[in-house]
Amino acid sequence: MKRIMVVDDDPDQTHTIKQLLEEGNKDYQVVCASSGSRCLNYLVKNQNPDLILLDIMMPKMNGWETFQKLKANETWRDIPVIFITARTDDFAERAGSFLGAEYIRKPFNIEELKDKIREILHN
Description:
By secondary structure, the chain is of the alpha/beta class. The protein has helices at residues 11-22, 36-45, 63-72, 90-99, 110-121; strands at residues 2-7, 28-33, 51-54, 81-85, 102-105. Helices cover 44% and strands 20% of the residues.
């Protein structure tokens, strides 16, 4: 079973993604964190996820800062990250595509997200 972490300050977003990925699928276990700092705290205390879905626009510690901390830590640096964000400017898209495994704009198509997850987890 693959563990996916969803990091987003919007509880509706995390709940929806969790429900859509786990519904009828025994291949994924989804854990949620409502902030970058909660993501990092989870990683300190638990087994690493196989993939992180990371929002960019979050208060206090945004997705870029969270990503930077992930990549600076030897234990977490190889966890693939998909940026999922409502931020649509060219810089964010180019940086997200370059830094992360993928960059997906909100609102997203769930089938596209599932395809990207499968592609990353099974390669």
